[in-house]
Amino acid sequence: MSPPSPPLPKTGPPQIFDRARLAARRGRLARTFASYDFLRQRVIDDLESRVGDTPRIFERGLELGAAGGELSARLRASGKAQSMVAADTAHAFLEAALTRGLETVMADEEALPFAPASFDLVLAPLTLHWVNDLPGALAQIRRILKPDGLFLGALFGAGTLIELRSVLTQAESDINGGLAPRFSPLPGLRDMAGLMQRAGFALPVADRDTVTVRFPDPGRLLAELKGMGERAAFSRGMAQPLPRRVLAEAKARYIESFGQADGRIPATFEIVHVSGWAPGPGQPQPLKPGSAKVSLADAIRRSRPEPE
Predict the structure, then answer these.
(1) Whole-prediction pTM value?
(2) CA within 20 to 30 Å of 121's CA: 82, 201, 230, 256, which one?
(3) How far apart are CA 291 and CA 106, in angstroms?
């Protein structure tokens, strides 16, 4: 009798990010987040406008990574959503959402605790670039949407912080002769369009909003990233401390390469917006990958007939 075979190794997406560390970070930054959330404010303004472009009144919506629930409260106050659930991984943010009269749920985007077809609207403002399994997260969002439900998300794309990536890569390569993981891997526009189709969304579309922000110096940029909660949070064993010499050299190169006449430095943020509908009766079938010819705004408006 032959001995039993050893168990097969567990497979799954690579665990790039430490989700527990990210949740703890959100809890710590909640108190001061309003001082650093200017990019998120831009995103929620945009998402509110896009929801407003639909002829729908949504019965029950969900906001992932809701922070204090400002977007959910706006949609409910405007009448575009009859009810909204604010979900986050930080108790401090959920307590703030409760003060707005919102229903709240502690929820990780990688393991959504909702039954299938629970919502007809799901929003994800600047949160999905921190998940380890982005295809799986999109599939879960698709699962919890009712037929003909709408998903709108925004996340940082591959063009984000191209200036900082460039100078830090050069400085570390020259000084240390190699590179350690310093930046989160971010998806490109085509990547997101393909992932939306793979997740089974109808009329999937991806748009890009490129924002250039000017800072007094590289140190201020790094401080702002920390306040936003956008510093890297790699899993244990992946990251290495950044030597002070490398950081100082990167700052000097940033000013030398990108400094402007008034002494300020630019930082680019690429925000990828995605839209998709859960398949429903009478909807057009999804196009083949790469064949979309319609803008995100048009996809939202055309997905439903105009009311008479």
Answers:
(1) 0.87
(2) 230
(3) 38
